Structures are given as C-alpha cells and as structure tokens.
Amino acid sequence: MIKHIGVPTLLRVVLGIIFLAHGISKLQMGLGNVEAWFSSMGVPGFMAYVAAFVELAGGILLIVGLFTRVVSALFIVLMLGAIVTVKLSSGLLGHDQAAGYELELSLVLVSIYLLASGPAALSLDHLIFNKRRSA
Question: Transmembrane segments in this chain: where (predicted)?
C-alpha cells in the first residue's frame, strides 16, 4: 500500500498532521498563554502568533499538498529557530525535565527532503502545476 501512496506523500501528510496538531495545541492553550510562555524563554511574544499560524496553515497545506516547497522552507526556519533559541542548551536528547531537540531536528530533515524533492504525484501541487506546464 505504501508503494502506491508513495513515501514522499506519506512523509508530507504525516508532517502536515504533526504541525497541524502543534498549531491546534497552541490555540487550545490560548495564544496569550503561548505568548507569555515564549516571552519567558526569551523569544519575542509575537512569535507565538507567527508559529501558530505557520503550524496551522502550513499543516493543512502540506496535508493537501499545496505549496509544499514554500511550507517546507517555513517549517525549516521555524524549527531551526526553536532549536537555536530554546532547545540547544538542553542538548540533543535533553536532560531532567527539559526536552532535547531531536524532534525538531527530525522535522527539519523531513522538511529538507520535501523541499528538495518537490511535489509528489498525489498532491495539489502536482495536479495544478502539471496542468499549467502542459497548457
């Protein structure tokens, strides 16, 4: 079954679901609370809104396969920012109660793959942009 769906499609959809879930989680916590949490870590509070929007909208776009390369690039920037500003001091695997950056690094690598590979056969990108090329 995976062969018929294709690994790039599977990676894209799962990555989209992960980011969508993180965006929904931020909404459920309340963006004001997320803003305060970001500020307490030394990250500008407005980035809570940016992160939530990118995760929500980007997750949905990846699930349907629209603007895959753009969204993947945004996810790379978002995750590298999280690693550098928050997670780096905890190390790869973390310590005590602080999580490491292994998840963010994995998400960056999947995003790099999607950025480099381009639209999968089962995506709106493929459907839309292949029609434009053939017209």
Answer: 7-25, 45-67, 74-93, 105-124
Q: Using the structure block, give the residue that is written with the tokens 């990555």.
A: 15
Contacts of residue 8, defined as CB under 8 A and 6 or more positions apart, other chains included, come to 113, 114, 117, 120
Q: 3-class SS at 66?
A: coil
The parent domain of residue 119 ranges over: 2-134
Per the listing, tokens 């803003």 go with 35
Q: Quote the number of domains for the chain.
A: 1
Distances in Å between the alpha carbon of 6 and those of 58, 77, 123? 21, 26, 11
Tokens of residue 4, six digits: 């018929």
Longest dimension (CA), the chain: 58
Query: Tokens for 11?
Result: 């990676």
Q: In this structure, what token pair is assigned to residue 127?
A: 């459907």
pTM above 0.90, yes or no: no
pLDDT of residue 134: 53
SS3 state at 84: helix
Instruction: Encode pLDDT of 71-85 as tens digits.
Output: 999 999 999 999 999
Low-confidence stretches of the chain (pLDDT beneath 70): 1-4, 131-135
